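user: can you give me the structure for this one chain? tokens are fine.
assistant: on it. calling the predictor now.
[tool input]
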Amino acid sequence: DIGRATGALRDVLAGLNFRNLDDEPAFRGRNTTTEFLAFVVHERIAAKIAAGELGPHARGLTSLRVTLHESHAAWAAYEGSLAD
């Protein structure tokens, strides 16, 4: 469901947007690179899928890829399987 996926992504990004992520307790001691943030977004969306927030058909997904673009030339991605 595209609407649910869009809402889930909006929720995840709202927790990251316009913040100094190096000051966030959850990221203490971590280098908040674009690669790391792609992993964080993946894990948070995967948790929403597992919780059923993206609807019953999302349970059939086996993997998820998150790509973040810093600019037209700089980007990073994380792809991983989704837990059963």
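assistant: here you go. Strands lie at 63-69, 75-81. The chain is about 35% helix and 15% strand.
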